[in-house]
Design goal:
The complex is a heterodimer of chains A (about 250) and B (about 270). In chain A, strand 4, helix 1 and strand 5 form a beta-alpha-beta unit. Chain A has about 250 residues and is of the alpha+beta class. Chain A is globular, with a radius of gyration of 19 Å. Chain A has one domain: 2-Layer Sandwich (Ribosomal Protein S5, domain 2), CATH 3.30.230. In chain A, helix 2 packs parallel to helix 4. Helix content of chain A is about 30%, strand content about 30%. A 5-stranded mixed sheet of chain A has the order 1-2-3-5-4. A 4-stranded antiparallel sheet of chain A has the order 7-6-8-9. Chain B starts with a strand and ends in an 8-residue tail after the last helix. Chain B has a single domain, classed as Ribosomal Protein S5, domain 2, CATH 3.30.230. In chain B, a hairpin with a 2-residue loop joins strand 10 and strand 11. Chain B is built from 5 helices and 14 strands. In chain B, helix 2 crosses helix 3. Helix content of chain B is about 25%, strand content about 35%. In chain B, strands 2, 3, 4, 5, 6 and 7 form a 6-stranded mixed sheet that branches. The chains are: A alpha+beta (about 250), B alpha+beta (about 270).
């Protein structure tokens, strides 16, 4: 049951926002919207809104943090104080500290960090409005920002959660489904390596449900991956059109 | 902000040795890939704490103390007691640990253990409310790492659940706004026995209960917690590598079977 005691899945198998069980929320992606950052991206996934900037590769400060054989990656996942119903303190919470770590680890396998010894690559993820699935949407957008910064990647990372509400598996949970549901499993997937670089789960799943949930996560990530590629191309289509107009 | 850690690599000869052993399905300490080190659990080691347990996994040593107090419940869960998990990577446990506020590793450790306890519903929080919305039991699980030789997640989880099983709840009388202990104790309501199993990946090999040397070599780790009924209740992949879907499925199977083995060693659990 949802907050108001209403059912989260109706008799037609539709969710509170009218989606089917395996349907993603409407997603809008934009690449290269911040002038100062080396790369940037913005994503809206349902009501979640996230902006990401990437700086680097650049010199490491302080110098002793640098590695002689590769670049270091720094990552900050942060929620704006106004992103949630109740104001969130701007100081990093334990949740944000954990997520910053596992998001960084989700990107380490795709970045060719060995090309840039003694330098650093910074990923700044700011959640402007939160309605569930922000770590996944943040990863999806951060991939675009890294690509936009021209950092060599083995592939983009696509990310989506699968969860369980009222005994049914669903993809891309919104906040209410996450809070009221019985399980939540965020996954980040790297198509070129056919491997996951982030996998977390809380709630309860049987073995059968877990197997099915992984399959659904992969399918959802592949849909998001196609959108990511489209969003990257779009930036250059727009640039080309702008040049043609001038001519 | 999370930063790529500077890890002191193993000597070339050592890492080569580990990999050659793994090719033969063996490990430096003589274990098979799916074998735990000796698991020793001693409950009730700290008399002043309401519950406690010390766990050793080989040379890894973890002490957990449980303190129970009374206080207001969270405003969004007025009918539930409060569970708080904290972890300290003590500087006496390894040369790489520095004193100071908890870093991302100790926060991750505490949160993974918290997830195992919370999501398995091991502790019946609903029975820990005293006056709904006003007063509830607050259960503090404090994880103390005494010696670090790898697999802190599992050692801490076993110590935490063993500590909870060992814990006593002070009976209180409500007088106005306050709860006064009567001096009597009752059992802490523990309903499940979640057991985490951590699996490290070195090259293409999956091995359970990695030592610190093995963790240094591993590209990634995955910790999977299952309940007494074999349901998965928490997962955490950590480390900067990847797992294929086949590896995740394999890890999940290993976790399920090893968890049953470890569960039989948890003192106080009669499943």
């Amino acid at each position: 049951m949802g907050e108001s005691g209403r059912k989260l899945i109706d008799e037609n198998g539709l969710r509170i926002d009218g989606r089917r069980l395996d349907e993603l929320r409407p997603i809008r992606m934009e690449v290269g919207l911040l002038a100062n950052a080396d790369g940037s991206a913005y994503i809206e996934q349902g009501k979640s809104k996230i902006i990401v900037a990437v700086y680097g590769p650049r010199e490491v400060h302080p110098k002793h943090l640098g590695l002689s054989d590769r670049a270091i990656v720094r990552c900050r996942y942060h929620m704006a104080p106004f992103s949630t119903q109740e104001r969130k303190s701007p100081a990093p919470s334990r949740r944000e500290i954990e997520l910053s770590k596992i998001i960084r680890e989700a990107f380490e396998p795709v970045i060719f960090s060995e090309y840039y010894p003694r330098s650093m690559i910074d990923i700044f993820i700011e959640v402007l409005q939160s309605d569930g699935g922000t770590r996944c949407a943040g990863i999806t957008a951060a991939s675009l920002a890294l690509a936009d910064a021209g950092i060599p990647l083995r592939d983009l990372v696509a990310s989506c959660a699968v969860g369980k509400v009222e005994g049914r598996l669903i993809v891309d949970l919104n906040d209410e489904e996450d809070k009221e549901g019985e399980a939540d499993m965020p996954v980040a997937y790297i198509p070129a390596l056919d491997a996951v670089s982030l996998l977390q789960m809380d709630g309860q799943l049987t073995e059968e449900e877990f197997v099915e949930a992984l399959k659904m996560a992969k399918e959802a990530c592949m849909k998001i991956y196609q959108m990511q590629k489209q969003a990257l191309k779009q930036k250059y289509v727009e640039a080309k059109e702008a040049v043609e107009e001038q001519e | 902000m999370s930063i790529t850690p500077q890890t002191e690599p193993l000597t070339k000869i050592k890492s080569k040795q580990i990999i050659e052993f793994l090719k033969l399905g063996k490990r430096l300490d003589g274990r098979s890939l799916t074998q735990y080190r000796d698991v020793k659990i001693e409950a009730g080691v700290i008399g002043k704490a309401e519950g406690s347990a010390q766990v050793s996994l080989g040379n890894t040593r973890v002490l957990v103390g449980i303190k129970v107090e009374t206080g207001p419940p969270y405003s969004d869960t007025p009918n539930m007691g409060v569970l708080t998990v904290n972890a300290e990577l003590l500087p006496l446990a390894h040369e790489i640990f520095e004193p100071g506020p908890p870093d991302e590793n100790s926060i991750e450790l505490a949160r993974v253990v918290d997830r195992s306890l919370r999501e398995s519903k091991a502790l019946d929080l609903e029975s820990l409310v005293i006056v709904p919305g006003k007063l509830a039991y607050v259960v503090f699980v404090d994880i103390y790492i005494l010696n670090h030789d790898g697999n802190l997640f599992d050692a801490s989880e076993y110590a935490a659940i063993s500590g909870l099983m060992n814990a006593k709840l002070p009976v209180v009388e409500v007088e106005g706004e306050e709860a006064k202990p009567t001096g009597d104790f009752k059992e802490l309501p523990v309903r499940d026995c979640p057991v985490s199993v951590t699996i490290a990946k070195i090259d293409d090999a999956l091995l359970v209960d990695p030592t610190l040397e093995e963790e240094t070599m591993a590209t990634a780790k995955i910790t999977i917690t299952t309940t007494k009924d074999g349901r998965i209740c928490a997962i955490q992949k950590s480390g900067g590598g990847t797992f294929t879907f086949e590896e995740v499925m394999e890890a999940q199977k290993i976790a399920r079977s090893k968890a049953d083995e470890v569960r039989s060693l948890i003192p106080g659990w009669r499943g």
